[in-house]
Amino acid sequence: MLKKGWLSRLKDGLQKTSEKLTQNIAQVFTHTKIDESTLEELEDILIQADMGTAAAAQIIVKIKKKAFEKEFSRENVLETISEEIEGILRPYAYPLEILPKKPHVILMIGVNGTGKTTTTAKLAYFFQKQGKTVAVVAGDTFRAAAIEQLQVWANRLNIPLISRHMGADPAGLAYDAYQEAVKMGYDVLLIDTAGRLHTNETLMFQLQKIDRVLKKISPEIPQSCLLVLDAMIGQNTYAQVEFFQKCLPITGLIMTKLDGTARGGVVVGIAERFKLPIHAIGVGEDAEDLHPFHPQDFARALVGLKDLNS
Ligand SMILES: Nc1nc2c(ncn2[C@@H]2O[C@H](COP(=O)(O)OP(=O)(O)O)[C@@H](O)[C@H]2O)c(=O)[nH]1
Ligand SMILES: [Mg+2]
Questions:
Q1: What is d(CA 204, CA 207) in angstroms, rounded to the nearest whole number?
Q2: What pTM was estimated for this model as a whole?
Q3: pLDDT tens-digit series, residues 40-67
Q4: Structural domain includes residue 310
């Protein structure tokens, strides 16, 4: 089944994270009794797994409570950790909703290499499968290769690409693309952007200009502004969220490259710290490798527990 395919890919991908985590936990839990020093060591393990200090502390409080109720096994500890992680993630796991007013504009932002262009294509495919009409905009005019990359995806998915020459003003392009989308009646307009310019200031200025130009058409546009984060880079994702939050109001996150990372725990820390919706996760390089974020599947895969449905 389709679900099994992506879930096993997620589990395989998170194996590096879960193996490290379970091995470290096994070393700490040599007895069934839990004392203060065991809890401290466990907290360190969770922090080392990129979950952040607040999320780690929250998980420890729960384990401490449970530990006094009954004797604890390692399996119990893992179950408790996964339940607690699921609880942290659940309020932020919701799908990306497309509003009825056409076109729903989605501005894709993020650092170079995180997977913006690929995720733009994946989202286009996702909406296309729902029977929606989609167009993509090659807003990364900074590099010719970026325009070509999106063109290849547009050809593959058989969807229109709206583009200009390299070096063109992406705000002007976004404006024209919007008019085109209205004329053609597209349901969704996905705007890819550059992740690197000469300086952070020029990048910030460019993104704000795109946003401003769209808001001039109507203040609710873009309806979505999605930040794409690469889970592989771990802790540095925190600084990226902070930087882009200073640029624009982010409406949601997409975490990529969860098919092969030892830093999967960062998703927990990001959710806890920024309290932004996590709409989907990337588990591969193909168009179909984008999946809605399921907190329970994710939490269990992260600590190496069996999928409850298998
Ligand atoms: N394994 C894996 N690779 C990904 C994923 N998302 C993107 N990539 C790869 O990451 C690289 C950079 O992606 P790209 O979309 O060009 O990033 P951009 O610079 O942010 O536009 C490409 O080789 C993609 O195929 C993912 O979820 N998993
Ligand atoms: Mg790109």
A1: 5
A2: 0.94
A3: 999 999 999 999 999 999 999 988 888 7
A4: no
